[in-house]
Amino acid sequence: MEPALKGEGVGVVRPARSQFWPTLQNIAMYSLVVEDTGMREPHWHPITAELGYVHRGKARMTILDPDGSTDTYYLAPGDMYFIPAAYPHQIEVLPEGGEDIHFCIFFDQPAPLDVGYKAGAMAMPHEAMAATLGVSRKDMPNLEGALVDPLIVARINDVDPVRVKSSL
C-alpha cells in the first residue's frame, strides 16, 4: 500500500496510483482528510479531470473558469462534484461541518498530475517572480521550499463570512 502523505499538520492524503497498484491503468484515487484549520492548496491538473465524493464534513470549493470568473459551491456529505482538466480550484473546510472533511477523489489519469500555486511559485527564480509582480527583488518575501507535501496547507485567513445561496 502506498504511504499516506501528511500536509503541514492539517490533513492526510492516502493515494492509490498505478505506480503502487498496477491494476489502476488510467485512473487514480485519493482519500483526502483536511482538518478544520487547513485547506486544499489552490491548484490545477493540466491534463486530468477530477471527480469527487464528500464522505464527511462541509466545505466550500471555488473554481476559476477560463474567462477569469469564479464559481463557488458548498459541499456536504453525499455531494459529488466534477472539475474539468486545467480548471484551477481550491477547497476550504467550513467550521459548521465539524472537525474535518473527508473526500474520495478520482482522477482520469494514472496520477493526479496537479500543479499547486505554492509549488509553481517556488519553481520560479526569485528575480523572475519579482519582475512578474513588478517589484524589486529586495521587496520580495523569502520564498522557502516546502519540507512537507504542500497538497494540504494551513489556512491563514478566517473563512470568508460572505455567503452565497446554498443548501447548508
Automatic annotation (TrEMBL):
Signal sequence bounds: none
Organism superkingdom: Eukaryota
InterPro entries: Cupin_1 (IPR006045), RmlC-like_jellyroll (IPR014710), RmlC_Cupin_sf (IPR011051)
Pfam families found in the cross-reference section: Cupin_1
SUPFAM superfamilies: RmlC-like cupins
Domain Cupin type-1 residues, every copy: 3-141
CDD domains found in the cross-reference section: cupin_OxDC-like
UniProt protein name: Cupin type-1 domain-containing protein
Species, as recorded: Elasticomyces elasticus
Lineage summary: Eukaryota, Fungi, Dikarya, Ascomycota, Pezizomycotina
